[in-house]
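Methods: example folding runs. The two proteins below were folded one after another, and each record is reproduced exactly as written to the output file, sequence line first and structure-token line second.
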Amino acid sequence: MFFRYLSFQVPEIIEVAKRGLAQIISQQKLPKDLLQSCLRPVLLNLADHRKLDVASLQSLGRLLELLTNCFNIALGEKLLEHLQKVIVFFFFC
């Protein structure tokens, strides 16, 4: 539930969700299947550059900020590679 609220446009809701998720993460490690199912919608939006918008990127940023210990370096490298392709597409189209 906290993952969904991180993508809201209301700053107060985002802040409460960030604090709640941070507290849960500090107390226990999140199961891999839970992380995958919660992140899937956000990552699917990244897969298609036409679906990208500022809100999606901000939501992803909040997630990555909170879950830095849950990801390996390869995911970060893939995200950067994908975003570089998207940026090139936007500038040259």
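Second run, written to the same file directly after the first:
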Amino acid sequence: MRADLHRPLVVAHRGSSGTAPENTIAAFREAVRAAADIVELDVRMSRDFELVVMHDRRVDRTTNGSGCVWDYTLEEIAALDAGRWFSPRFKGEQVPSLRAVMRMLPLPVGLNIEAKTDGDTRANTALAESLILHIREARMERRTMVSSFDHAFLRRLHRIDPEIAIGVLYYPLRDFGRSPSVLARGTGAVTFVCSRSQLRKRHVADAHAHGMSVACYTVDTVRQARALRKAGVDALITNYPQRILTSLSALR
């Protein structure tokens, strides 16, 4: 996830989630139309151990259902309306499976999968293996990165398949004072991911000195994008990929 000579990579956060309901095919299609370099999404396991694209533990905020993701089978969660909460125009949008998103992503768009393990006691025994199988099955090894706040999960996935790129998410209450390169030693990470407010010059310097890239979220204004570009950030994670790409193109 290294920037080219001209601009940082633009990563569509849960798809183009500022213009379409997050983590839906509609949001991912808008990200592709905007020419985002990478699509970012969140993955959890359904009751029947299928991988579904959902950020929260519960489906309440972004669907017309109620309860935890792991209370639903893939078929049951696909029957929920995941679009109407955002706008009546998106009524009927579904919670997609990871496989469905992988099938619709064209070359050369990359994929950043954030693995969500909180609250699901099965995550330590099944999620890493399932993610690897999905990535290998789709032949997307070279354009996929798996990231997580759960560093134990990242270590497990890296041990099983060291060829899959890892992004380590920074959590200051736990990771304060630990450099990107130190976090990488434990997880096999090639990318350091943090919020705009957490980013420090030393993070960029340390990461680049150790061959790592730096990704920053959530970058939704032109001013933020330009400041982070100047700071040497390699990837900007945004809800508005079209806006950020347009602003960066103007700087060439």
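Comment on the second run: The radius of gyration is 17 Å.
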